[in-house]
Amino acid sequence: MSRYRKYDGGDPLAPPVDLAEALDAIGQEVMAGYSPEHAMQEFLRRGGQDQQGLDDLARRIAQKRRELLQRHDLDGTMQQVRGLLEQA
Question: Residue ranges of the domains in the chain?
Answer without folding.
Answer: 16-51, 56-88
